[in-house]
Give the backbone structure.
Amino acid sequence: MTQGGAHPSPSGALAPPEGFPLLAHEAAGEGGLVYLDSAATTQKPACVLEAVDAFYRTNNANPHRGAHRLGGAATEALEAARRDVARFVGADADEVAFTSGTTCALNQLAYGLAGLLRPGDEVAVSLLEHHSNLVPWLTVAKLAGAKVRYLVPDRQGRVPDGEIDRAVGSRTRIVAVSHVSNVLGCVQPVERIVRAAHDAGAFVVLDCAQSVAHLPVDLHALGADFAAFSGHKMYGPMGTGALYARRGAASALGPLLRGGGMVEAVFEQGFTFKGFPAVLEAGTPNAAGAVGMAAAARFLEALDMEAVHAHGEALARRMAAGLAAMPSARLYGPGPDGAEERCGIVAFNVRGVGADLAARALDRRNVAVRAGAHCAQPLVRHLGAEAVCRASTGVYTSERDVDRSLGAVEAARQDAANLMTSAML
Ligand code: PLP
């Protein structure tokens, strides 16, 4: 089996792009694809693809169902995956339920905790939230007659202490915040938020969709009650993810999905549930996906998450410095020299050019960035924009990739100027 591993490539990537079959196919690096859309989904290393393939070739059966040998092998593969994923985020295996992704986990959390909300209660979220950590809370708050309050970030995209004190108080029941903004890449002061929420007697839900791929995440140390993250953003397969529930908090969480596998006993007029995590895993699990997600966790552990963080942060600062020096570019969020902790995500616009047009101009130069509101419309509106371009790095991204994308931004501006001149002629 191909191993993931810390073998920096000559180009300066943390993991050689050749170890990612899609990037190898696209001949990433030498004039080939520069993939800067890792915050949407990362490319997959060979070890992840091989782990999924091996599950179907050698272990495929329905886990926790069959008494036969293969059923046992599938169960063992799923439970070993749970142990690996839990270790990766500083949790114990019995605190992790597999889900189809962050969105699924956050909906399970919102509906599962909705019973705690009474009229007049409050759910505190930040203005930076992805719609997946906002729409479910808006929905359950409305059903309960509760209110959603916002923690407003500063210009660098970080929620200041004063905002936490203002928005979290005696009416707060739940605080749901992202660990890392998917638009600005800034790291939120979650320890401080957890302290304030617990002082107020509220539960804390962390959206770790971006942080797990970029930072060492230790959920026990952070003290969060619940957390959600996606496998596909941390080099694992699509359709995978996890919901973490702290051992003392899991019993507050009711199930959203009901059916096979999550019940202890069923009678004509009732049923009893299993405990966490089984209670949240109704139906046949995506066991092959879980195995792939575990392979991704081991791949990242082998790279060392401190090194992954340092790599992404250095690339983001290089990108931000390049953009800040370009009169035609507008940078959002942390500047190149700020002291704040950040990840490999940078938001920008090309002045006078719509974000979508700019992204298309970059695409013509084989640089893939995303343009739009990034499922964070309240934040992008707060930034005074309708849409922004976002460059997001991965472990396969090199300084050369960043420099090529900066050249493409300059060229996008030139394209727009040429278009305007020819329209005037
Ligand atoms: N939360 C954040 C911060 C995200 O970046 C994303 C995806 O971009 C999500 C939630 C939703 O993740 P998924 O689409 O994997 O469910």
